[in-house]
């Protein structure tokens, strides 16, 4: 593909050819470098990575129900890196398997500390990427982490994106059941953005649908997105699933959701993702016994 692109560019003008080709080379050099850095960071035990935790709120009770762990990378040269800058690369190269395992372990370790401090009702969520889900021994990995950290399984949730389950295959379904049988919770992240058929939902051992931020963004002005959101809420209700909205940024969105029966929310309106100490300071201080 690169060759075709360069050839076409060359036909247009000599300068453009040079620009085009060096651009392609630069980009791949950069991502090879980043891949090496990622590999090294993971090999060294993962201390360049850290987690932020974004609380999930129940607007009915005004309480936190849990938090989502979101990974960040403190790159030695480039500094703070948000996940969008390295998760896709980690996914492409397979490094996500090791990184994802680190995330689940750290999430469970942190949640166990909160559990021991008396916050036994909270659920910590970790994102499970498609590669990780397809890894043949994912169930054992999660099982071992739970045993090692002594976190009760019901205090852990895995968020699976809809594209994991697009292919309603036997293997995929078997993996979901094996994970669920560990006693953990499972949710479908970014719900509504995939191309999956709704028919599959009833076969899946899931607890929660998470409505994607893209629907919430203009929920009060875009009637299509409002309709989709309402449909998801009704669907969850009729399948006996919980429903949570992500990316809630203002009061109007929160009120709309409450009015339409969705009480669980996550978003900047309530809180940005925070480091553990900050989360404790702001939200958890009065909760523990
Ligand atoms: P996601 O799982 O959909 O996570 C939600 C993202 O939206 C987070 O971005 C969060 O900070 C952001 N967010 C939450 N509330 C709001 C809001 O009200 N407004 C806006 N504008 N944004 C909001 P973040 O932390 O940058 O993560 C981006 C994505 O990277 C995540 O999307 C997830 O797909 C991926 N990711 C993050 N951590 C992990 C991880 O440990 N493993 C895997 N596989 N993926 C991860
Ligand atoms: Ca998520
Ligand atoms: Ca999401
Ligand atoms: Ca999303």
Automatic annotation (TrEMBL):
Span of the entire protein shown here: 649 to 937 of 939
Domain EAL: 31-287
Keyword terms of this UniProt record: Coiled coil
Identification of the protein by name: EAL domain-containing protein
Top-level lineage group: Bacteria
